[in-house]
Amino acid sequence: MYPFRSTEAKWRKIWEDNYADATPSIVSSSDKKCYVLEMLPYPSGKIHMGHVRNYCIGDVIARYKKAQGYKVLHPMGWDAFGMPAENAALQNGAHPRDWTYSNIESMKQVLLPLGLSYDWDREIATCSDEYYGHEQRLFIEMHEKGLVYRKDSWVNWDPVDNTVLANEQVIDGKGWRSGAVVVKKQLEHWCLRITAYADELLQNLEQLKIAEERHRGYAVEGWPEKVLIMQENWIGKSEGLSVNFEICEGDFGEIVALTVFTTRPETLFGASFCAIACGHPLAERLAQTDAGVAAFIQECQRTPATEQAQSTAEKMGYRSKITVRNPINPIETIPVFVANFVLMEYGTGAIFGCPAHDERDFAFAEKYKLPIRSVIHGTSDSLPYVELDGTMVNSSFLDGMTVLDARKKASDYIESLSSGVRQTTYRLRDWSVSRQRYWGCPIPMIHCEHCGIVPVPKEDLPVKLPADVSFNEPGNPLDKHPTWKHVKCPKCGAPATRETDTLDTFFESSWYFLRNCCPHDAEPVNKEALNTWMPVDVYIGGVEHAVLHLLYARFFTMVLNDLGYINLREPFATLMTQGMVCHMSYQDENGKWLGPDEIEKDASGGYVTKDGGRPVIIGRAEKMSKSKKNLVNPEQMVETYGADALRIFIMSDTPYEKDFDWNTEALEGAWRYLNKVWRICEQLCEKYTFSSNSNDSVNVNDVSKGSLLATAHKYLQRIEISLNENAFHKAIALHRELTRELEREIDAEQGSSLSEMAEVLKIWISVLMPFAPHISMEAYHQLFKPSDLMMHLPWPVLRPELAFVERVTIAVQVNGRLRATFDADVDVDTSMLSEEAQALSGIQKFIDGKVIKNIVIVKNKLVNIVVE
RNA sequence: GCCCCUGUGGCGGAACUGGUAGACGCGAUAGACUCAAAAUCUAUUACCUUUCAGGUGUGGGAGUUCAAGUCUCCCCGGGGGUACCA
């Protein structure tokens, strides 16, 4: 039995004592680097299987790259600010700092036994004054650049706790802790001008599709398509035209025209109505004189304000008494509706409707019997026709043009009339970073009655959080602190107050990957270190960060480039989003979640509750969560089966990007496999004595075809391919096949020479090392007894001439059905294949007495004989 | 609603540019070893039949092809994102 406990402890100690995973320095330009990074965890106190999966993926890549001779940067840190620390303070009186640091410590005690190759010397906790002090300096420099500003806008406000709540903390319109009805409150807060980068954030998505080859040495997918699409939608750029429709009747004071925004100016000739939002100034004016409009607006306001209710509400409109004139087609006037589906917040709060080419407008026109006039002759006659291929019709001077040409021409025309301007709108909003919370980075600003807002002088940084705070009163402890906020104005010396808002925790995670390159530098970042290590070559994390974190981090990189700190615009060359770790969940007949320890098998093999034998409903595998009681504790698994077994298991069976179904029996299978590996090693140690410097490789000419060494190289080649495409589960499957080949040779007692066997075993053990490092190191040392202790194993050098396949199996089909196979030399002449196939006895009976119409021969693959 | 992904044995999943479907693992069945159990090893494991052989099979239906899990069209199921964005 493989003594995994002692072996794993032994190797962890060796690695630790020898700083085996210290980040190497890059000395020459020929050094290849690889920066492997996993999204930094929040120190909640528990390491769960999702973390384990995330870090195992990163570690396999880091170790593989290291073995291949890359200089690898593989750091770990803690995203340590945030609300849970304050909630803990409220619940059990622990200081957020103590709570956070003790969680970090306990999580680290679970991570260390996994044998992850982190350079712990670079560990960062974002709540350290050192880290957030640098962050404050970046904030001030952004302020100097005009990228930070104060803004008045609406926030979720809990009137009992006197605090802003995040959207996630508003449940059914009530504060999650106080239960008070959350109100919208207008508040001054700090914003980052991310919209200034909207265009670049959007445009660069294109280049993120493919990772630049120089970072990996082979072509590889950059970012997953779905993440790129999500970011694109989030930024939501639309280019169009705002057009003024002259109001034909009535006097509305300063309002003489209705301005609408459109992305389809080419369809202006198809306009048959305009619609405005209930909150539009014109609607309010109309309501004063038109009781029908007023009643309609009231009716709309009865719909609950939740997004859910609004989006499912029926689309309704009310036809006002006024009409407007379409500037492109002034001989016609069209009616104006007040409509519940037009949003005041987007565009101008007014639209024109072209029913023939927009689904919603079409439905609206049918409902209110409005004209539907097609202006695009497209590839289909059914309406609405929303495609863009086609030619313009019924559109005066646009007739005959393509849609895109007409769009340009119509826009030019409207602009020449001064009836509108081209306009680009974005869905992306500036990033509000103020939080009325204690456990965050203090915003380094001072409010002075005389000088206004004054940044804290850089030499006074960091602005440290006070340790002595009370959570007994509601509201922001910083604001309530007796002394902390009172300072002198750095400019005029008059009494002034500190900003008591702290930064959103996404701020810390927006630049930690840069700090990781130079965690001990006196400056926020060190340009040379960034030039060396950035970009992150492989970034691994959950898809839930597809938009916010990854967008903010990209934004920061661009800003830090503009501030002169770094020489690149995009921080992450490749992004890998791993799937969730799921587990079977159980419920009783009342829907109460049951843990595995609360159920048992009954006589018929079904599950019942231990308590009372009530029936148990077995749910599908769901994401592990405390509430569903389907958690599996990683610590316990390492204790029972060892780190290597857990590592190899979690990388097996399922592609990394898909959800992973936990299965403790299969983990046991991985444990059995490692025991087998160990048993084989023990046998080999008895049988062979390898000289410690048996590094001379076997001459190719001395290796016989079909020998184990040739087989090992074939597997090495396939394993490399699998690893290069991040198909870790396939690499493990191939290793198991190779193990079987090795066992077969041992059983057969046949003949690889000593040096052949040495090379075979080096391949066999070294390719296992990224997955199961402890057992691999131990096995290697037992077998080869190197004179100096090794910290890592080098990746075996593939010998393509040995990996070359000499014999292939040819499939023989008759009329496309497989009837036989035979072996042939690779690349044998096609006519030979044909003859041999027809001569096979198993084939004769299918072709005897029939006319052969055709024979399809695919070299090295198959012969298909077509008869009759 | 729209967009994206996905559908292969009891289960997780393999299958390079269309070319032997089910690698590898889990589970299951039988056997060996054992006083017995565990561990280990061997064999079988898509389905059906008249089983030294043949037929059917990759959600369903059509099509292209000598050949379709793979390509095209239609339909159905599952998952995710997003939402009146003009």
Number of strands: 39
Radius of gyration: 34 Å
Instruction: List segments where confidence is low: pLDDT < 50 over at least 5 consecutive residues.
Output: 304-311
- What proportion of the residues form beta strands (DSSP E)? 15-25%
Label the overall shape. globular
Query: What's the main sheet like?
Result: 7 strands, mixed
Name the helicity range.
Answer: 25-40%
Q: How far is the first residue's CA from the last residue's CA?
A: 62 Å
Number of helices in the DSSP assignment: 28
Instruction: Look at the helices and sheets and give the structural class.
Output: alpha+beta
Mean pLDDT: 87
Topology (SSEs and partners):
Blueprint: H1 4-17, E1 33-38, H2 49-67, E2 71-73, E3 77-78, H3 83-92, H4 96-111, E4 124-125, H5 129-144, E5 148-158, E6 163-164, E7 170-171, E8 174-175, E9 183-192, H6 198-203, H7 205-208, H8 213-216, H9 225-235, E10 238-247, E11 257-262, E12 273-276, H10 281-289, H11 291-302, H12 307-312, E13 317-325, E14 333-339, E15 350-353, H13 359-367, E16 376-378, E17 390-392, H14 403-416, E18 420-425, E19 431-432, E20 434-435, E21 445-448, E22 452-455, H15 477-480, E23 486-488, E24 495-498, E25 502-503, H16 512-515, H17 527-533, E26 536-542, H18 548-562, E27 572-578, E28 581-583, E29 586-588, E30 593-594, E31 599-601, E32 607-609, E33 616-618, E34 622-623, H19 634-641, H20 643-651, E35 660-661, H21 664-687, H22 708-724, H23 728-748, H24 754-766, H25 773-784, H26 800-803, E36 807-814, E37 817-825, H27 830-839, H28 841-847, E38 852-858, E39 862-867
Parallel strand pairs: 1-2, 1-26, 3-4, 12-14, 26-27, 28-35, 36-39
Antiparallel strand pairs: 5-6, 5-9, 7-8, 9-19, 10-11, 10-13, 10-18, 12-15, 13-14, 16-17, 20-25, 21-22, 21-24, 23-24, 28-34, 29-30, 29-33, 31-32, 36-37, 38-39
Helix pairs in contact: 1-25, 3-4, 10-11, 19-20, 20-21, 21-23, 21-25, 22-23, 22-24, 24-25
The chain binds one RNA strand of 86 nucleotides through helix 9, strand 11, helix 12, strand 15 and helix 13.
